[in-house]
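Late entry, written up from scratch paper. The run itself happened at the end of the previous shift, but nothing got recorded in the book at the time, so transcribing now.
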Amino acid sequence: MSSSLRTSGRSDSDLQPNFDVRKEKNLHGFCCSCIFSSEDTKPELKLNDVVQVVYDDGKLYETKLVRFDSTTNKYKVKYTNRQYGYEWTIVDRILKV
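Output as recorded:
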């Protein structure tokens, strides 16, 4: 899997990720990540979008967005291949595919 970002209508050079997988390895649980430098460059996510998440082993895995929890500001996802993690996981950072 490629770690480059794919968002509709924007080139990779328009996005300024402030994210390093090596630094994110110390986060607990299942994370996924891409923090952008400004609000207007964040990709729009919709339920049932297929995205990539950074698992706690530092690798990218494909998931599908299931539900958004506005209280925690996190998405609940379902892994495409269950061997990579639990069927349902709450994540707080996402790479759009």
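The beta strands are 50-54, 60-69, 74-79, 88-91, 95-96.
(Scratch paper discarded after transcription.)
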